[in-house]
Structure formats: C-alpha cells, structure tokens
Automatic annotation (TrEMBL):
Family membership: Belongs to the N-acylglucosamine 2-epimerase family.
The protein's enzyme class: isomerase
InterPro entries according to UniProt: 6-hairpin_glycosidase_sf (IPR008928), 6hp_glycosidase-like_sf (IPR012341), AGE/CE (IPR010819)
Organism: Endobacter medicaginis
Name by which UniProt lists this protein: AGE family epimerase/isomerase
Chloroplast among keywords: no
Keywords: Isomerase
Gene3D superfamilies on file: 1.50.10.10
Any GO BP annotation: carbohydrate metabolic process
Amino acid sequence: MLAATTRLTHPALTWRRNALELWGERGIDSRGLFYEQLDFNGRGDADSRRRMRVQARQLYVFARAESRGEAGAAEVVDRGFPAFQRFCAHQEAGWIHLLEADGSPADILRDTYDHAFVLFALAALARTASHGAQARALAQSTLGWLDEVLAHEAGGFHEGHPASLPRRSNPHMHLLEAMLAWYRVEGDRQFLDRANIIGGLFEKHFFDPAHDTLGEHFNDDWSVVAPPLGDSVEPGHHFEWCWLLVRLAEAGGADYREQAARLYRFALAHGLDAHGFAVDEIDRDGRPRRMSRRLWPQTELIKAHVAMGERDAAETSFRALADTYLATATPGLWIDQFDAAGHGVSPVVPASTLYHIDVAIDELTAGR
Ligand SMILES: O=P(O)(O)OC[C@H]1O[C@@H](O)[C@@H](O)[C@@H](O)[C@@H]1O
C-alpha cells in the first residue's frame, strides 16, 4: 500500500497520493510492465499494446515518488525499471516504440519523442538510491546514440530512426525538458548547453514573431509545412514551451522569456473556452479548430501560470481542473478528454494522465 510520509498540505497532494496508490497497485502487471490504461473501476487492460513512452512516463512518476519518500514507490520502480530494460531496449541501440501485449516487439521504430521521455525518466531514476549508477550509464549511451544516429544536418533531430516527415517541434520541447532535468540532477554544463541549443531552435525556427505563435510541423530544412498542419496552434504547447523557457532562463541558460510571455498571452487570449479550459487546437490567427479539451493542456496551463508568477490563476485553474476532470467513481483517476460540448468522451483513463497531473502538481506545490 502506498502511503504518503510527508504532510499533505495542499489538496493536490492528496489527489496525487490517491493516484499513486491506485496506479501503483493496479497499473502494473506481474512482469513489471505498466498498463496503457485503467477503466473507471480501476481495472488494467492486459490486452493492449504498450507504448514505450508510457512505460517511461510511469517510471518517471514512481521514481520521483521514491525520491520524495512515498512508501511503496520504490517497489514499483524495482519492478518497472528492469522490465523496461528487458522489454523496451532495441537489440542494437536505443529503445523501441511499441510492444505487443505479450511483451514482444510490435514496432521497433526508434522515435525521438519517445527517447526524450526515456532521458527524462532516467534523470528521475538517477536520483534514487538504488538505480542511480545504472540510470546514468543508460542516459549516456542513449544520448550518444541520439547524437550519432538521430542528429539532423539542419540542426535538431530527425523524428526517429528510420526518419520521417514532417519534423516536429514537439520532440525538441521534451528533449529540452529532459536536459533541464539532467542539469538539475548533475549540474553538468553539457546539459545546459544542450538545452540552450534547443532554445536556439525555438527562437530561429519554431517561434513565429509575426503571429506570436509556435510552429508545430516542418520540412527537412525547417521551413514550415503548408496549412492546415503549418498553421496549427496547440494552446497546450504554447503553455508548455512557456513554462520550459522560463525554467531555462532561471537555470542560467539562454533567456527567451519575452517570447515565452508572448506565447502565453496568445494562448490565454485565443486558446481558452468560455469556462477557462484550454482547447485542443486553434489556428495562428486565433480561430477555433478543435474545441475539445484534453486533460494535458490544462496541466500545461497550470505550469505556465506558475512559471509566469500568476499563482492565484494557477490555483484557480487547478481547482477548475479538479472539479471537472477528477473521476468520482474511483479516487485517483482523472478524465482524459471532454468534447466541445463539455461531455466526457474518454471511455478509459490513459496511464499518461498520471504523468501530466504529477508534473503540474510538482510545479503548483513547489516550496509550499
Ligand atoms: O496523448 P498523451 O500521450 O497523453 O500526450 C499528451 C501530450 O503531452 C504533452 O506533453 C505534449 O507532448 C503533447 O504533444 C502530447 O500530445
């Protein structure tokens, strides 16, 4: 049974403990592989294929919980980390994209976005007592392989190996997140340098100063692809980049806080619905496209509020999130998606909801 050993002063911490208890008990199978999803009664789906990125995200969450001293988390990590290495490692190098339910490889694509989450999880594992050395060694080989095989001659990284188009800003955003996490753990300048390089890509290619928007999809040479992909704006990504760019500057890296504020303001002005929830997609003129609203853009909204120093707004957004997205049947479950009319449309709870909520709660409660 997972139980908090710290005092729970913010309601968000109680909700996180509920989530950790549930996912720690029900969200991992006898082999140590995490389920993709639970149903609203908290039952895992043994027949689903398993995406590597979900395994990495769950490992991140439980490694962080172990470092905070939450009872039971270390056991989950002790089961999950060896299984991750056994099932997800590619036989040559890197990490495969997808597993069959029986654990055999279903897609051996090595995807850059996925690898960002491997590095992010390894940074959290590096802080644990028993897995630090192994996590450091794996991060070193993963980064080396990324540089060797996935680096693109026009800067940044290919989408994956084998390479595909369009290229996206999104994997680079999560690599920035991972490099900042490693810099926090090691204090080693190479990680800040890597984070700065991604910041440079943001400034040069991803940020559109004519619109104050973030580009999502690009050709090989970083030119923006044609609409509709080329002018798609995801408010959630505006908030997520805003948060990370502020953290980059605070870590002593390059300072893109002005652009971060412009992304934030654009998404606040055009990317929220009448209830203040972040919608899934608009265009670069601020016109609505997909007015559904997943959970993750809401967690990014909270992180961006915190990064911008808007504490009251962060608390208000978190309360609205809890009022609407917390599932009532089983404590610890969060609804993943509502349609434009406000009807819950996710029939199950994806495991990644735990990661999205966990990072937002860390930000909301830091220093409180
Ligand atoms: O669909 P899941 O796996 O929950 O991910 C949800 C979202 O996470 C965010 O951090 C971004 O990377 C998004 O591009 C992604 O769509």
